[in-house]
């Protein structure tokens, strides 16, 4: 079975904001985004978190278990166009038909990807299969909230009750995993403006690692993995991170090990 744990990072869709709100073309991107945030605060009564169709994807990271291999990476190149990143994501679904795993993917990541794929005219037939073309998808497809072809781990653990949902960072930390490391989703726009797309991709990769480790713990809890199998899977992740030799993954590994030893 192929398992793809995924996460996206987004910034304001400034071009879309200009079109929808008639913002002055003389405004630079920062000023246009601030105008979008201000309008959103007026609409929401205080929150400046933009509606999902006004997010633009700048990073998609994957932690994948494929056959006997584990690997974490970000799709495409750092400056690659949004449409290309989204095409790569759905091409992976088309090619491998993986089990998708996310943290709040049903509430954020997938709706954003739907809107942006619609915007760019991206085809994703395997992802949208519901059983008409492949009977195996009739009772297990990517859209149904209660099917496990996409497992929104946050949703499942909360019994599909938004009031019971827990933040990824806190639950990962409680389980002895690194949690957030030097960045948060609220800092992505600031980092993007500073040209730090590499830092955003690194952060996104640590998020999918936290989610993957929680997914392994979930598999242990539900009996899909026994204690020995769980430890073997964790060691597979550690071996992969050591082999990559990337600073942010080394830091993640050291922080994880310190939590295990504590």
CATH architecture: 2-Layer Sandwich
Using the CA coordinates, give the radius of gyration: 19 Å
CATH class: Alpha Beta
Shape: globular
State the fourth-level CATH superfamily. Ribonuclease H-like superfamily/Ribonuclease H
Number of helices: 11
End-to-end separation: 33 Å
Based on DSSP secondary structure assignment, what is the total number of beta strands? 5
Task: Report the helical percentage.
Answer: 40-55%
- The spatial strand order of the largest sheet comes to 3-2-1-4-5
Structural class, from helix and strand content? alpha/beta
Query: Mind describing the biggest β-sheet?
Result: 5 strands, mixed
Question: How would you characterize this protein structure?
Answer:
With 262 residues, the protein is of the alpha/beta class. The chain has a single domain, classed as Ribonuclease H-like superfamily/Ribonuclease H (Nucleotidyltransferase, domain 5), CATH 3.30.420. 52% of the residues lie in helices and 13% in strands. The protein contains eleven helices and five strands; from the N terminus they run E-H-H-E-E-H-E-H-H-E-H-H-H-H-H-H. A five-stranded mixed sheet has the order 3-2-1-4-5, sandwiched between helices. Helix 1 packs across helix 2 (29-44) and helix 3 crosses helix 4 (105-120). The longest helix is centred in the last third of the chain and has 26 residues, at 197-222. The radius of gyration is 19 Å and the shape is globular. The two termini are 33 Å apart. The model has no long low-confidence stretch (mean pLDDT 95).
